[in-house]
Amino acid sequence: MPVTIVMGGQWGDEGKGKLTDHLAAAAEVNVRANGGANAGHTVQTDQGIFKFHLLPSGILNAASLSILGAGVVVDPKVLIDEMNDLARREIPLTGFRISDRAHAVLPYHLLADRLDEIRRGGDSIGTTLRGIGPAYGDKVMRRGLRMIDLVDPLSIRAALSRELPRWNLMLERVYEAEPFDLEDLASQLASYGEHLRPYVTATEPIVASALADHKHIVVECAQGAMLDVDYGTYPFVTSSATTAAGACQGAGVPPTSVERIVGVFKAYSTGLGRVPCQPRLMMPSDS
């Protein structure tokens, strides 16, 4: 079977980016499966040092197709900045694709994330303030704006007309913050969508076709297993599924196509934000 999954075995920061870059050099397709701009992967090559928050680590392999899967939440501004940086360094983006099902991180998600952490005070989670939790919250509440909407100005306006009043009400009444102007926000998002439109497509058929052709696919997970929203050290976790099962879901890969799962560990554990010193372990006697 042609799929390799690379995932962190701890709280992230295990060095997955370097390993993913190495494996992607021999892959024909590489897919980022989950998380958002809260991830940080550093890759060093003979072309220099690259720091990625959203772009798949395998983007440096010009012979490989690089995909942001449906399980990723995309901050369009951060992504465009990363793409522009690669363009300045003459790294081609012709093989880059973004799932039209991936959800967008919007400016009010970023603001709400910061204000909520402040409101929590001493009980703050220690998020990266990248708007990840609020964006995934909108996704599961069926209120999100997907990339297929972001590239269509009419869809942007329809979504904001529906959702912005609720967000503005919460920002004003709960956080005592300034509301967003619909026209300004719609214009800003439309400019992002125009830039990203050539890269947004239905990536699931691309992955399915690669599997049918027995091409080698590397699936890259963000964060680590102990940050999984279901099985991690809750509530000090991220907002997505960071395990191999989550990788399959986010990348659009059936589990039966997975040949190997590479768990990345380091000799000592570290993590961003607040992490409990002694995580609860599930013992056989637990029921």
Strand order of the largest sheet: 9-7-5-2-10-1-11
Tell me, rounded to a whole number, the average pLDDT: 90
Radius of gyration: 19 Å
- Overall geometry comes to globular
The CATH C-level name of the largest domain is Alpha Beta
How many distinct domains? 2
**End-to-end span in angstroms?**
36 Å
CATH homology superfamily name of the largest domain: Adenylosuccinate Synthetase, subunit A, domain 1
Global structural class: alpha/beta
Provide a count of the helices.
9
Share in helix: 25-40%
Query: Which regions contain 5 or more consecutive residues with pLDDT less than 50?
Result: 277-287
Please write out the topology:
Layout: E1 3-8, H1 16-24, E2 29-32, E3 41-45, E4 48-52, E5 65-68, E6 73-74, H2 76-88, E7 96-99, E8 103-104, H3 107-120, H4 132-140, H5 147-150, H6 153-173, H7 182-196, E9 200-201, H8 203-212, E10 217-224, H9 244-251, E11 258-264
Parallel strand pairs: 1-10, 1-11, 2-5, 2-10, 5-7, 6-8, 7-9
Antiparallel strand pairs: 3-4
Helix pairs in contact: 3-4, 6-7
